[in-house]
Design goal:
Keywords: DNA-binding, Isopeptide bond, Metal-binding, Nucleus, Repeat, Transcription, Transcription regulation, Ubl conjugation, Zinc, Zinc-finger. It is found in: Nucleus. The chain is built from 7 helices and 14 strands. About 40% of the residues lie in helices and about 15% in strands. The protein has about 200 residues and is an alpha+beta fold. The termini are far apart.
Amino acid sequence: MAEEKPHVCDICKKAFSYLSCFKKHLLTHLEQKQYVCDICNKSFSQKKFLNAHLLTHTKEKPYTCEICNKAFFHKLGLKTHLLTHTKEKPHSCEVCNKAFARREALKKHLLSHTKEKPYACDICNKAFSDQSNLKKHLLTHTKEKPYACEICNRAFSQKGNLKTHLLVHMEKKPLACKICKKKYSQPGSLKNHLLSHVDEEL
């Protein structure tokens, strides 16, 4: 049975089960943010948000994972991280039931169902469903290639392309032709090879 959420925010339509949570939420919409950071003047609606923000200035990370010793600024960061150890995936997609460890990952996934592409390139207007793909795309305009091979110095605009290239040096060829069993390190090379079998059949 779904939890009843009778308290609805008129501004953003977010619903809450408890009045106390609803009241706290309303503060986030108030223009007056009374808790101000003395270091950078950033303001916050609640003291706990200011306290959490202050940790970014001190670089103090008080929340440590007992399993791998990774440290975090915020309790939520540690809580989310712990899911990687437990393999727990509490956030599931209502459309296809795929489960995710992080709420952010679920939000990103939902865009694949809605076909929504909120991140657009300012240069060519090409749109993307998530910000990381837009960042990768922008490198095609700047011609920037930040990922360099340590063996031959060949540079790539995307990390995935560098990983594929490294297979050449390691002589690993994980992609095999199902017809003649010849192996390739890159999908494009295998694709071109498969065309030779098509030509043989003609």
